[in-house]
Structure formats: C-alpha cells, structure tokens
Write a structure and sequence with these properties.
The structure is a homodimer of 207-residue chains. By secondary structure, chain A is α/β, with parallel strands linked by helices. Helix content of chain A is 44%, strand content 21%. The first copy, chain A, has a domain at 7-35 and 96-206: P-loop containing nucleotide triphosphate hydrolases (Rossmann fold), CATH 3.40.50. The two termini of chain A are 24 Å apart.
Chain lengths: 207, 207
C-alpha cells in the first residue's frame, strides 16, 4: 500500500539533545524530512536562508498568518516563529514523514490541526544527567541553569499528552529507537482509515 | 531501566493467520511468551496438557472463576475457555511480554483489567485474500466460509478499538513488524509511569 507521511512533533527539555537526535535521524534514514521554521528574527552569522530558517519580515509573517499558511506560530522575544504549512503538506503527500521540533503548547496546537500527528517527548535518562548536560555547555550561568531546570519541571507535567517518550542516552540507540516508534505509528487504525474502509466494503460484498 | 512485560492481545479474522504468526514470533524472539488457555473441553488427539491448553473439569474451572483466577473467560459450544491469571502475571513480572489470542469481546475485557495491555488486530492484505485462504484450507463448506466472512465483516467494525493493525502478507515481514509494534509500545507514557514520576520528583529537588 502507498502510505502517507506522518507529521512528527518532537518536544523535550532543553538539554535533552533533541537537535542532535533529529539531525542524526534524518541523516541515517531517507524516510524523514525536517521541517524548517519561518522567523522574523535576524539571521545569525553562519545561518543560511532556507536551511536553519526562512527569514522573513514582520509584514510577510503576518500576511502568512492571515492566509492560514502556518500550522502553528508563537512569538518569543519580540520575534515570530512558525511552521509553514505548504512545505509540510508537500512532504506528507510524497509519503515522507516530517519532523518538527516544538515545545508543548505548539505540539498540542499541531495535534488539533493534524489529528494523525505523532507526539514524541525526548528526555535524558534522569534529571541529574540533564543538569550535567546543561552545566557541561559551559555557556550558561547557574541562574540560567536553574531556570532551565524549573522550566523542565513544568514541561514534565505534560508528558502524558505525548504518544511516546524517548530516553536520549546513547545517540545511536536513540536514533534507532525513534525510527522504531515512527514505523510503529504508521500501523495504527487512525492512520489507516482508507485501508480499513476498503476491507470493510470488500467484506460486505463477499458475504 | 528494568522494564515490566506487556500483555499483548492479538485478534483478527479467522483465516488471517494469527496462530502461525504468533508461533513464529515466539520462536524468533526470546522476549515473548504465549499464554496458555484453560478449557473444559476434551483434549483432541495429539494435544498435550499444558501445551495447547490446561484441561480441567467444569468444577475446577468454576472454582477458578470464583477465585478470580482468570483474566477473562467465555463459554463456547457448552465448554469454558479462559486465560489463567497466575501464569500471565508471573511472566509479566519477569519482564517478558505475554501474548494471548482472543476475539474482540475478550480483548476489551482484558483491556479493562489491564489498562496497559496492547491490542493488535491481524488482517489479510484484502478481503479476497481472506476468502482464498479460507477456501484453500479445503476443509470448509461454502456455507461455513460464507459464515466466516460474515463474522469477519462484523469483527471489522471493531478495528478502531485496537492499538495497531498488522497486515499478514508475508510471514517473516509480519513477524518483524509485530516485534517493532511491541517494542514501540514499551515507550508510551502510560507504560512508564514510574520512570516519569522519578524524573518529576528529581527535577523538583534540583530546581
């Protein structure tokens, strides 16, 4: 059967290693495409248009909102960030699974618009490891680390909204695990309505 | 992390090849144990106590019911059939996933008692193939085949109650697929309550 792509929303604590995991996943398997966000913030040195982000003006962004061209969007530090709908839908139609990284509020909005979206929550093996990773970056002050941990504690309250959790311990294993989860997700009744309808109709004509 | 076993309930149309699939799955992977049913019917030639079934008297069966020793039971053609609780719970504690084959009513009863049970529906690639398989057995009259197809049509109405569907086309692929689904099922929040609680508590103490 020709199968449609699934929209995969990945969330998780800051420091859980989502970014690396997703890059490795897309690199390892051909089945997946990373969604690219649209933003009104200025490109940082080294960032390329259409790679890290689509960089647009405030006017363009608001026009896209009005045209329902975004799956979800949020504003953060006076800048807009959003997920362009067209790219995602094109990939899904082609049968590719599209991965987007987003925090819990956005994840739930996506799930409303795309009931077949798969929600995956990435977390470190334990909280102490999360703290170590945040400290290990060496770029954050103790206050910032403390804030991140508090934020993680809040986010942890929403884990039950997700379909799967992934423990990010060893990267390779975790990539493999993620692949297994996504493959399994293709086999739920919700994501195979046509197939089920077909066999129902066929059974009725046979008996 | 030491993980608990999952109870896996497999249903599907008569002729979908559930039996062969499950035997092959248990044969291929060490993770799984097949549940053995208890019945009051007489052993058929070649059937061994404790292998195909546990054969017991009507009195013993009813005693087991009264002692809540069965996960589910039903009566069919004047005989009782049921799933003994002790064996299943022992295997789950050991971390093995236990597979039991049961029709939809029983499957839903199991899900009530074991909310973490995984429900899998096995089906042929299409209804015509199902008919071919039923005819291919060469043992059934057209009337019986017609009844089986009518029964399949009824059962098909309940597919949405299942967590996953598995298309039984090529056996090896299907066994592999089944394994993927069960592995994925281990990673839902519902089946990792302890782990999630632990990280929540830990995060609270850290921030």
């Amino acid at each position: 059967m020709k199968r449609k792509g699934i929209l995969i929303v990945v969330s998780g604590f800051s420091g859980a290693g989502k970014g690396t995991l997703m890059k490795q996943l897309v690199h390892t398997y051909e089945d997946y495409a990373l969604s690219i966000s649209m933003t009104t913030r200025e490109p940082r040195p080294g960032e390329t248009e259409g790679k890290e982000y689509f960089f647009v003006s405030r006017e363009e962004f608001e026009k896209t909102i009005r045209e329902d061209g975004l799956i979800e969007y949020a504003s953060y530090c006076d800048n807009y960030y959003g997920t362009p709908r067209a790219y995602v839908e094109r990939q899904l139609e082609k049968g590719r699974d599209v991965i987007l990284e987003i925090e819990i509020q956005g994840a739930l909005k996506v799930k409303e618009k795309f009931p077949t979206a798969l929600l995956v929550f990435v977390m470190p093996p334990d909280a102490a490891e999360l703290k170590r990773r945040l400290e290990g970056r060496g770029t954050e002050s103790p206050e910032v680390i403390s804030k991140r941990l508090a934020r993680a504690s809040e986010e942890a309250e929403g884990i039950e909204k997700y379909d799967f959790i992934v423990i990010n311990d060893r990267l390779e294993e975790c990539v493999e695990r993620m692949h297994v989860l996504i493959q399994a997700a293709h086999d739920t009744p919700l994501r195979n309505k046509e197939l089920i309808d077909d066999i129902r109709k066929e059974l009725k004509t046979l008996c």
